[in-house]
Amino acid sequence: MTGSVQADAGLIEKLVLANQILYDQGVVDGLGHVSVRHDQNPGRFLLSRNRAPALVQAADILCYDLDGVDVANTGQRSYLERFIHAEIYRARPDVQAVVHSHSPNVIPFGATGQRLRPIFHMAGFLGSGTARFDTHDVVGDSDLLIGNAELGAALARALDSCSCVLMRGHGSTVVGTSIEQVVYRAIYSEVNARLQLNACTLGEVKYLTPGEADLAAASNDTQIGRSWELWWKQVTDKRR
Ligand code: MN
User: Fold this and answer.
1) 96 C-alpha vs ligand 1 centroid, how far in Å?
2) Of the listed 13, 81, 180, 229, which one is catalytic?
């Protein structure tokens, strides 16, 4: 990577894998991004240059500060929406990794103002439901992108203490305490959305209670390594 403070090489490689896994699992396409807080400096984070996630390599990973500035001033193009990451890291010291995507099954929830709620144990991290954000409430008509610090800060305020925020007419952002956990959460937010949409056509849904959600989330966090190994193998097999 290029940056004035070198990050751990293993962390960078894991971030590269996360980019490729999120594409392989259908969470991101040409757009969307994943970041991790810098292991040496909590006021910085690691994020690819402006590139499709499936194509990201270690040399593409840049170091940003919490104003969204490319610390090493590499001259590379940055993601327009890097302020999502910057402002969430500023507002949430507990957050170590962030995924922003436009994964399709989540979109109807943001558009209707319905929360994603945990319909099965795998989505216990959704707790009592997702947060909601609407760029129109902040700036009126826009391209809906989180293209500056003001919008990033408003998004971070809307996220509050939740693990996922729905962005009306746009997508969603999930946060976690590790790369593995945030990738898991991004994948299962999309799965939960699909299942919740299906279940609603059958009748009234009984979601996990907040207590069940918390217990399931804690249990799942001890098992993420098993899924990560599978996701990792799928992308590395495809590289050969
Ligand atoms: Mn976006």
Assistant:
1) 20
2) 81
Quick check: is 1 in a domain? no
Q: Which two tokens mark 193?
A: 């959305």
190 has catalytic annotation: no
Distance 168 CA to ligand 1 centre (A): 11
Distance between CA atoms of residues 74 and 69, nearest Å? 10
Q: At what angle do helices 149-159 and 82-91 cross, to 10 degrees?
A: 50
pLDDT per position as a tens digit, 150-185:
999 999 999 999 999 999 999 999 999 999 999 999
Q: State the Cα–Cα distance between residues 35 and 51, nearest whole angstrom.
A: 13
**C-alpha dist (Å) from residue 203 to 76, 127, 196, 206, 222:** 51, 21, 11, 10, 33
Whether the Cβ atoms of residue 3 and residue 72 lie closer than 8 Å to each other: yes
pLDDT at 5: 65
For range 216-231, the mean pLDDT? 97
Assess if residue 108 is contained within a domain.
yes
Residue 180 within any structural domain of the chain: yes
Strand 131-133 versus strand 164-167 pairing type: parallel
CATH number (domain holding residue 156):
3.40.225.10
**Is the pLDDT reported for residue 233 higher than 90?**
yes
Domain housing 200? 9-239
And the tokens for 117? Answer: 């709620």
55 located within any domain:
yes
Q: Using the mean position of ligand 1's atoms as its centre, give its distance from the Cα of residue 186 in Å.
A: 14
pLDDT tens digits, 16-58: 999 999 999 999 999 999 999 999 999 999 999 999 999 999 9
pTM of the model: 0.96
